[in-house]
Design brief:
By secondary structure, the chain is of the alpha/beta class. It has 13 helices and 5 strands. It has a 5-stranded mixed β-sheet with strand order 1-2-3-4-5.
């Protein structure tokens, strides 16, 4: 497992995963053709796109054609409206290298017993300047886009582990809250992920202030997935040790090694990211404006100034 970027589900596991997707092998190709034909008829969207990724969208939408259309439209739209996340995606650039120098993160290779993929993110040091949060999110979505092409059959769920065992308050108040709103719009509305759990580990009392601050952007469903752990021991009630990296008491391998493997993959994908720069919505060709994008991606009203006691 230590030398494999993503362990794929076994044939037996795939049967169970397809059930969670509501995937019918007899109608799957028809659904895919429907989505491809729909894309061709949307003047503002790319008319051809990676067929495998389209299928991953269908799976993530439980083969609901209408939900899949909405997600795809938003996926290409956020690439246009949020360039700070989706443009200049070169992992070797100085800005992204700066992020990598202070952050450790990776999608872990194994699958949980209920077929979930686990991702971990932490600061690699205690003392560092507040990074450009948009660049941190950019790297996260870069991994997500590459992973989309690597998942052979898809996985049932996603689990995220965020380690906040560093002076969080110092950095939290230096980040424009609008960046959180944009990030959660992308996660919830534009990507075909099914989030089962979000685990905040090594948490201090401040984390409750932080969570309450971003909760308005999360929505009720996503808010219910959050679990806070003062250490890591209670994390084992949700994620088996054999899935976790050694840095968290697991046996899967070292997080720093997984990060290194993903970094290599991102470097190998530089040409693909450059090509994808133009794969986005063209708003000059949109026939009908169903969404007020200023409201979606902007900040409505004022965000009250926070203080720490």
């Amino acid at each position: 497992m230590k030398n494999v970027l993503l362990v794929q589900p076994t044939p037996e596991q795939q049967i169970h995963i397809r059930k969670t997707f509501n995937e019918d092998e007899n109608t799957r190709d028809q659904a895919l053709d429907t989505i491809k034909n729909w894309l061709r008829k949307q003047p503002h969207l790319p008319d051809t796109w990676d067929e495998h990724r389209l299928l991953i969208f269908l799976k993530g939408c439980h083969f609901s054609l209408e939900l899949c259309k909405k997600k795809l439209d938003m996926y290409f739209t956020v690439r246009t409206h949020i360039p700070e996340f989706f443009s200049h995606r070169d992992i070797t650039s100085p800005d992204l290298q700066k992020v990598l120098s202070i952050m450790d993160g990776a999608v872990l290779p194994g699958l949980t017993p209920d077929f979930a993929r686990v991702s971990v993110c932490r600061a690699s040091k205690q003392d560092f300047d507040t990074p450009n949060m948009a660049d941190v999110i950019k790297v996260t979505f870069m991994i997500g886009d590459i992973r989309m092409g690597m998942e052979e059959t898809g996985v049932a769920y996603d689990i995220y582990i965020v380690d906040v065992g560093f002076p969080l308050a110092k950095h939290f108040f230096n980040v424009n809250p609008l960046v959180f709103k944009k990030m959660f719009v992308c996660i919830q509305e534009a990507y075909p992920v099914i989030i089962k759990q979000i685990h905040i580990v090594n948490a201090s009392s401040f984390i409750y202030t932080a969570i309450n601050t971003v909760k308005p952007f999360l929505g009720e469903t996503l808010s219910k997935t959050i679990h806070v752990h003062m250490g890591v021991e209670t994390l084992y009630d949700f994620v088996p040790k054999e899935i976790l990296p050694e840095e968290y008491g697991g046996t899967a391998g070292k997080l720093v090694d997984f990060k290194r493997q993903w970094l290599k993959k991102l470097e190998e994908s530089r040409a693909w990211f450059k090509q994808e720069e133009s794969v986005k919505a063209d708003e000059t060709k949109r026939v009908q404006q169903d969404i007020n994008y200023n409201a979606v991606f902007g900040m409505e009203g004022s965000f009250r100034k926070l203080s720490v006691d």
